[in-house]
Amino acid sequence: MTDGTVFLGTSEKREELFLKLANRHGLITGATGTGKTVTLQILAEGFSAAGVPVFAADVKGDLSGISREGEPKDFLLKRAKKIGFDDYNFEAFPTIFWDLFGKQGHPIRTTITEMGPLLISRLMGLTDAQEGALNIAFRIADEEGLLLLDLKDLRAMLSELANRGSKLTTDYGNVNSRTIGAIQRRLIVLEEQGGENFFGEPALDIKDLMRTTRDGRGFINILAADELMQSPQLYATFLLWLMSELFEEMPEVGNPDKPKLVFFFDEAHLLFNEAPKSLLTKVEQVVRLIRSKGVGVYFVTQNPLDVPDTVLAQLGNRVQHALRAFTPRDQKAVKAAATTFRQNPKFDTEEVITQLGVGEALVSTLDLKGVPSMVERTLIRPPSSQMGPVMPAERTQSVKNSPVYGMYDEGVDRDSAYEKLRVKAEKIAEQQAAAAEAKEKAKADKAAAKKTSSRSKGRSRRTDSATDRFVKNIASTVGRQVGNMLVRNSGSIVRGILGSLLKR
């Protein structure tokens, strides 16, 4: 790396990415086994060495080796010599391991309230009607000061919504109990996928993803995603939530000399697959605006066609590894990938994409004027850290030495919607029991009154009438007491572009 750049490799010249333009986002594409992970690794190394924190999902487990010093193997030394990488050395990089399931790193959690109804709906694959009902649940929870922290809170809130359905129609529209039941069933599926591990407290503070070491290197945050990938919807929604959190919580910085954070979104096609147009529009908006917060977003996927054109147009720094062209569909993909580059008259880009070897790529980065450079056939530099995964014992040791050790490892379950609604239900049950008892007493009094004199009977009739009115009043007000028995928030709830809670 030279001042102000990240060294990528060598074509006929050094290919470098300017840190000042690194927040203009990027794209790493190529077929399986062509070297995408190593490219991600050397970019993360370069950013870390420049003092830029990194967040990346480790889909196969290979990226964990970045926490260990590499070994001087012959093929690495040969590649370094071939590309003129004279100051090539081996080193480990500061790493924090995270895991939604808490097995291979520190747990990452957020709350239901913070994620918001839009992303929760995306996560559970809800229909429009179900998403509408969920929005009503969030609206009522926000208005009545009910914290939705974990899945049991949301389940309790949905049950409350079903019980109050007929009383909410005027203000919020029809709430169908069958719709609520369908959402509850989707919650069970989410729970089985491991969603209960993700929702709860302590919630992640994004500042802990932006740490630097005492010597000024940026921490590389690695999310263990090999198990998480078995639930692709949870994986994609989590990363989308994290990106939206960065956008909503970080201050405007304009065009800094280097990014505040670089975010790698591996298996990016999962974000866009079957996503509704409304969500894609919001994702495009976040990608467009987040660069002013000093965040660079780098999508990693097999082909540029995996990314919508509106998002693709915003990805200025690109590394294209080899693609295969065995079928007409493959050939179309190759052609599409070739057209995304500024063409080099020295070679046919479309033809070269199918000829690239492992560790070789077509590279185009933004120059200091923000203009894409002419695409160059490039030998990617070898990594300085270990290629391949670390041993479990090494990972465990890294977790124990982490600067966030002990901050997220134990969950907290404080009073929230579930507990408050349970207390309210108990009070209602007590009131219903008292009303029933009063009604039985009224019946007994009425029977006894028949045996008294007509004068006493007249007085008793008037008394019983008053008692009846009292009992009926209790019974009729039970259903109206739901909101009155809860403490309301002192302030209003404000949500961002993707519906996540704004904390400021």
Q: What descriptors fit this protein?
A:
single chain; 504 residues; alpha/beta; 18 helices; 12 strands; 12% strand
What is the element layout, followed by pairings?
Layout: E1 5-10, E2 14-18, E3 26-29, H1 36-49, E4 54-58, H2 74-82, E5 95-99, E6 106-107, H3 112-115, H4 117-124, H5 128-143, H6 151-163, H7 165-172, H8 177-192, H9 195-198, E7 220-224, H10 232-249, E8 261-266, H11 269-272, H12 277-290, E9 295-301, H13 309-312, E10 317-320, H14 328-338, H15 349-353, E11 360-364, E12 376-380, H16 392-400, H17 417-449, H18 454-478
Parallel strand pairs: 3-9, 3-10, 4-7, 4-8, 5-6, 5-7, 8-9
Antiparallel strand pairs: 1-2, 1-12, 10-11, 11-12
Helix pairs in contact: 4-10, 5-6, 5-8, 6-8, 6-17, 10-12, 17-18
Task: Tell me what the structure shows.
With 504 residues, the chain is of the alpha/beta class. It is built from 18 helices and twelve strands. It has a twelve-stranded mixed beta sheet, sandwiched between helices. β1 and β2 (14-18) form a beta hairpin. It is elongated. The chain starts with a strand and ends in a 26-residue tail after the last helix.
How much of the residues is beta strand, in percent?
5-15%
Shape: elongated
Strand order of the largest sheet: 2-1-12-11-10-3-9-8-4-7-5-6
Number of strands: 12
Order of helices and strands: EEEHEHEEHHHHHHHEHEHHEHEHHEEHHH
Q: What is the CA-atom radius of gyration, in angstroms?
A: 30 Å
Through-space gap between termini = 38 Å
Largest sheet: 12 strands, mixed
Into which percent range does the helicity of residues fall? 40-55%
Number of helices: 18
> What would the average pLDDT be, to the nearest integer?
87
| Unreliably modeled segments | 460-467, 469-491
